[in-house]
Amino acid sequence: RLTLYQSNQLHSPHLTVGGGHTPREAFSAGINNFQEEEAPQGRPFNKEKMKDSPEEEAKLERQHFWRIIDAFRFYRVHVQEQVKRAEGQILSLPQRHQDLLPDVLSNLARISQCADHNQEILQAVVHNSLHMFENIEYGEREDPRKVCPSTTFDMDKLKSTIKQFIRDWSETGRAERDTCYQPIIEEIQRLFPNDQYDVSKVSVLIPGAGLGRLAWEIARLGYICQGNEWSFFMLFSSNFVLNRCETVNSLTLYPWIHQFSNNKKSSDQTRPIIFPDVNPQSLPLDADFSMVAGDFVEVYSESDSWDCVATCFFIDTAHNVIEYVETIWKILKPGGVWINLGPLLYHFENMADELSVELSYEDIRTAIVNVGFRIEVEKPSVQTTYTENDRSMLRYIYDCVFFVARKPADLYFNGQEGEEEEEDDQQQSFPPAAKSPRREGTDRLT
Ligand SMILES: C[S@@+](CC[C@H](N)C(=O)[O-])C[C@H]1O[C@@H](n2cnc3c(N)ncnc32)[C@H](O)[C@@H]1O
User: Per its UniProt entry, which superkingdom is the organism in (predicted)?
Assistant: First the structure.
């Protein structure tokens, strides 16, 4: 069983969290890269200037929570509207054309059935989400049966979340995980090998953890691992898969029914995917795995806390990626490492009223070095996919950058001490994971 902590302001990434975050029980725990973040709140760029009162914050938080619950509940209606529209188009064709397409209407009926099935899974996710946070209750709906319409924006995010189940928790997603997660995992094992480290003392943070598979895999290897996630779509879903799904391949989703273009066969659109490919509850009893809810830069402010921060398809979610660079620098212990893999598909690009600093990798790299990191490994071209439909006639490949950047271990040593560190090759190669344990604070659990 995992523990979830939640910070405030999940609804509004633009506001600063005052009191940090508080622990909550309850659980165990991507977007695709297409604007998975929260809906624009219409706030100005300077977040400091726009703090609401705590009461207003709590109200906005509640509204946001229920808006996302509503999106999960509205899904079936939304897909059925799409199906009805497609049926209407077919039925509007001249009869002789319809006669040439004997299977089309039955395929649409099948899509409708698949949506009903997806809705059952989504209902289970919602059912387990209503009280998943220990320290916050979001009240009850006056009429819980009432389904409120959702925006296309939220429906798109929900569909992306469904695809994220495939990336993280299905056999089908294995190839994608091998290209995205495996290089990060191998690097952690190379940097903190278990024959030289007590890995149960090596702490790894995964900001933007999505449905938690990367963090889970790292915890399975014995490292302390914490995922951090901001989106309720992801948090509800990760809570479900991590805490409520025990039987391998017992559940089915139809993630491709929303894709009406680029299908070679109609049956490709309605093919099922089963999950979870492993029992998420099968972590060793002494595993130290947690998920923390909230905005990465707001939740993590404690200096010199982590041995490793690993970002996968994450840094382009920033309004200002330099803020992420600074935060990672601050929270890493001296000698700690930042491992990154991902593209730069800036999530706030083209969003009105949103700060979005779209830098090239070259510029980010300059900033990383200027902050003080030493880049130890750099691969400019790692090809990966993201929630790919491997039967689609349109497929994207991301040409990702992969790097390992170290916060030098000699940072806090001046004069003689610093020179000693410089001379100590071993110290340079292996950060002092067990030497300066992360402080046990509110950001940790189990
Ligand atoms: C493209 S997804 C990647 C998910 C996962 N790392 C993977 O590779 O599948 C980016 C994730 O970062 C989360 N995210 C975006 N901004 C965040 C923030 N400020 N703090 C924490 N998580 C954030 C999103 O909700 C989303 O789940």
Answer: Eukaryota
